Amino acid sequence: MRLLTHNVMRNNASGASKATSPPRITAVTKVRVDDSSSSSADDDDDGGAGDDVVRREVEFARHVLPVLDWDSLLRAASALGLTSLPESVSTELAEDEGFLRALYHVLMNVHLVDGMLTCEVTGKEFPVTDGIVNMMLEEHECE
Amino acid sequence: MSLDATQQYTVLIEFVHKHLDFHNAELHSVLDMHGIRIGTDCHVQTLPIDGRSSEVRRPFKILSFPWSFIGCKFSVSDGDENTKREKCINLVTALSRCTLIRSVLELWGAGPTIDDCVESVQKGYYPRRHQEGKHLGIGDGAKKFEVRTWSILVHTLGSTYTREEQNDMRSAFSFLHLPGRVQMKDPDDEYLFIREVELDGQGGAVYPRHSGTNKQVIPENDARPPLACYFGRVLGNNGLGRNWRRSNRIEQYSLKKRCYLGPTSMDSELSLIMTNLAQIKPRGSFVFDPFVGTGSILLTAALRGAFCFGTDIDLRVLRGRNQDENISSNFKQFDLPPPELVRSDNAIYHRHFRHHLPLFDAIVTDPPYGIRAGARKSGSRKGGEVRPISDEHRYDHVAQTRPYAVSDVLSDLLNVAAMTLKMGGKLVYVIPAMSDFDERVDLPRHECLTLNYVCYQPLQTEYGRRTVTMTKIKEYDEKKRSEYVENTWVNGAESAEKVANIRERLIEAAKTKPGYEEKALRRKAIRKSTKETKKKAKRDAATKNATENAASTTDVPGDKGEAAAKDAAL
Segment Disordered: which positions (chain A) (predicted)? Predict the structure, then answer.
């Protein structure tokens, strides 16, 4: 599970309709950090593969920045031991390439492989195994 | 000769004779995505034809651009020096995204007969322009007209002509006096003469020149004039050449090459077309598949450069068979970044995710219709009162799922798309239907989504599937949720019913065919025998174990011992 995915999730038990922030990462057994260059996809319409990867990353980060829940991202990142993100994002920072690359790295290259997420409101736990979060509801939680 | 305003730069697009209904939609979608508008930037020209009215679909399309656009707004250069220039759209690069295009010609001339074609080449501006060679570029790689190697190929759409006959057709263009050397393999300029004939639905000639049995020329078919003739220079000569599909190596993405597959994996060709209908851009696109399955659709989205996100209710398909056979291994095979997978239920997407975010650029999916895989959603199988899971059972408990009606699958899909797509984002999905399905009234709708294309792909005589493309045009209003869901099916339950029971109806239809009974009996016998073989193998294994255990204490002579020894040797 990437932190980007974590950031768009929310507590989903029926009792937690008011909870709007992602569940908290409460257990971290295994984390994988990819090398940023390994995420290069083949792109043969223009040269300079390295340049292209950077451009792709920066553009993607700029793309998703407006939808992020920044406080939750900070909390999640610190749960995984990442402290490279600033407390808040100013408009100048949002255009800074270095920052956007660092953001991309945190959002996309860090995977929680095994761990546990816990809903702050209901205490329901969502296990993460092999990088896949299980968000399924139990029968009594459905409408 | 000077150019007057009425003259246009024309390109001839040749499609593969496959997915006929998708040709236009894919082309329009790709042009639109590159900001090329049909009607203002370019026009579709009618294909030449001699008086005959042709009912069949022709795999060609002629696009014309004002000459003044070529070289400034659009470039058709083979080299990539122009692609770097801002605001200049390289038509060749843009069109090469189309999965269904076989090749593109700079159309020097066309007409109903070869003589008309020659005449229009002579009248046209192209030969002189090419001779002047300004468009060939001034870089080091660009060769002057005088030294450019060339070849003329003859394409007759499946009819066979001898070398001599082809030479006759070629020599009609000898007036061009091309000064360079002839080179058949990788020439600088590849010219193509196309003799179009009527094609049937499968792409074969309706009036074949040779009979299928003794390879004799059929005189009356041979005397038949061509539908049209075209002559032009092949575009995309650097790397793409005559057969774009081969150069784009569409074959390598074939399902056969993948290590992880399921019964519902989408074939690579259709999913590549879907990525074009969804207009997935090479950088920064975020693509979602709520019924990800084996990830076959997302894989092609990732090939286009998108970041992929998939959810499914079935944990088994998400995890795959083992370490080397799962969704990620398919992505690794093509050196793509692995997709993000979450086990969740699309019926209650709004409870799993912060749904009010306009997050995705495109949703591309093949929802389950119960034909090969049934749909399920969270909830108790039995229904009625459900007790909460007690604490001591919590960790062992497997959440139950219950069947998920097709009509709800679709209304939820459209609703999730309306919620989560960015403005202008695309929803592309597949919907199967029997012949009674009327796409004008029976397709599901949503107030926030507008319909772009519906492309039909016939699978059997009565049965086929449609690929539907929609665009988000309106902000989603949470308060109108129930109204949205209610209005999904214009014809109410009747429309929903038409897609709901296709599996049953296919089986019903099969039963009416002659020979069904015998076939069914034969299949039953085969099933029975496989079952018995399996049972026997199991029994043998059990006895083998038993004898081995026994053998460790005493020697057991006889059949059983021998069988065990044989098994052990195997």
Answer: 30-52
